[in-house]
């Protein structure tokens, strides 16, 4: 939760210090940060990066954390793990407070995979949808 507040604070500072902040870029950086949490093994922060994470029952949150751990274990078996995440592009609709962030996973077996990460903005914070 503290890390989520840190991201919100960074976004607020960026909004205050520069005019015309590219919300697509903010959404892309938030998406990358959430996936960096996943790579670092901080599964709780990854789960907390999802929209309305605070309104789910604790048992369901625990299951989501367990699923994130299993996903990373599966990637280790299939691809020798995810080594890095890169932002490729973002398509944002600021009027609808939504964005699609395109990330590339660089796997340990030298393969890459592009994924689309839907994001939603709520009260100045971008969340995984």
Describe this entry's structure for a reader.
With 129 residues, the chain is of the alpha+beta class. The chain has a single domain, classed as Nuclear Transport Factor 2, Chain: A. Helix content is 47%, strand content 29%. It has 4 helices and 4 strands. A 4-stranded antiparallel β-sheet has the order 1-2-3-4. It starts with a helix and ends with a strand.
Spatial order of the strands forming the largest sheet:
1-2-3-4
Q: Taking all residues together, what is the mean pLDDT?
A: 89
Structural class: alpha+beta
CATH architecture type:
Roll
Number of helices: 4
What is the helical fraction, as a range of percent? 40-55%
- Name the helix and strand elements from N-terminus to C-terminus, one letter apiece: HHHHEEEE
Largest sheet: 4 strands, antiparallel
What is the general shape?
flat
Quantity of strands, as a count:
4
Rg, alpha carbons? 15 Å
CATH fold field value = Nuclear Transport Factor 2, Chain: A
Q: Class in CATH?
A: Alpha Beta
The CA-CA distance between the termini, in Å, is 17 Å
Task: Give a short synopsis of this structure.
Helices cover 47% and strands 29% of the residues. It has 129 residues and is an alpha+beta fold. It has a single domain, classed as Nuclear Transport Factor 2, Chain: A, CATH 3.10.450.50.
Could you give the topology of this structure?
Blueprint: H1 2-17, H2 23-39, H3 43-48, H4 58-79, E1 82-93, E2 98-107, E3 112-122, E4 125-128
Antiparallel strand pairs: 1-2, 2-3, 3-4
Which terms summarize this structure?
129 residues, 29% strand, Nuclear Transport Factor 2, Chain: A, alpha+beta, 4 helices, 4-stranded antiparallel beta sheet, DUF4878 domain-containing protein, 4 strands
């Amino acid at each position: 939760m503290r890390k989520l507040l840190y991201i919100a604070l960074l976004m607020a500072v960026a909004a205050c210090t520069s005019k015309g902040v590219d919300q697509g870029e903010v959404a892309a950086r938030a998406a990358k940060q959430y996936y960096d949490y996943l790579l670092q093994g901080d599964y709780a922060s990854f789960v907390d990066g999802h929209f309305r994470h605070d309104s789910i029952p604790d048992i369901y949150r625990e299951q989501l954390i367990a699923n994130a751990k299993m996903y990373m274990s599966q990637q280790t078996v299939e691809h020798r793990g995810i080594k890095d995440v890169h932002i490729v592009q973002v398509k944002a609709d600021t009027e609808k407070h939504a964005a699609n962030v395109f990330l590339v996973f660089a796997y340990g077996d030298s393969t890459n995979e592009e994924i689309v990460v839907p994001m939603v903005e709520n009260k100045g914070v971008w969340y995984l949808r």
